[in-house]
Amino acid sequence: MKIYKATHITENIVNAFSKLIPQLSPDSPIPSKSDLEALINSDNTMIFLAEEEDIIGTLTVVLNRIPTGNKAWIEDVVVDESARGKGVGKKLTAFAIAFVSGKGISQINLTSTPERVAANQLYQQLGFRKRETNVYRLTLKE
């Protein structure tokens, strides 16, 4: 399996996102090629991909420089249902951690719903600790 940071967007990547995003969040729109290009051309967003013959997983890291330090958020982790339980998520997450280490990042945060039992166990195995905090969301109509 090959894990890498996306540096350009191909049709293969666009097709992978059209398959993977509904598995993560069925109500979310599928990102277009231009959406994905904007993300990888951003200074603070990185998309990582896991690929065998096809792309089987993705993870996004967002870097935030704020008064309390430079932090990273791991977002939109999804492994294709056909590849789950094979260590893809672990390898993607470990790769992302290694990639941002040494870049002045003081903390890496992520969220995961309690129903994603395997994902929560994985994050704990990788050293993430559950925080006692509330996460709030305000959905804005565009």
Write structural notes for this entry.
It is a single chain. Strand 3 and strand 4 form a beta hairpin. This protein has a five-stranded mixed sheet with strand order 1-2-3-4-5, sandwiched between helices. The chain contains four helices and five strands. The model has no long low-confidence stretch (mean pLDDT 94). Helices cover 31% and strands 27% of the residues.
Features:
142 residues, alpha+beta, five-stranded mixed sheet
Strands, helices and their partners?
Elements: E1 2-5, H1 11-24, H2 33-40, E2 45-51, E3 55-66, E4 69-79, H3 88-100, E5 107-110, H4 117-125
Parallel strand pairs: 4-5
Antiparallel strand pairs: 1-2, 2-3, 3-4
Put the structure in a nutshell.
Helices cover 31% and strands 27% of the residues. The chain has four helices and five strands, in the order E-H-H-E-E-E-H-E-H.
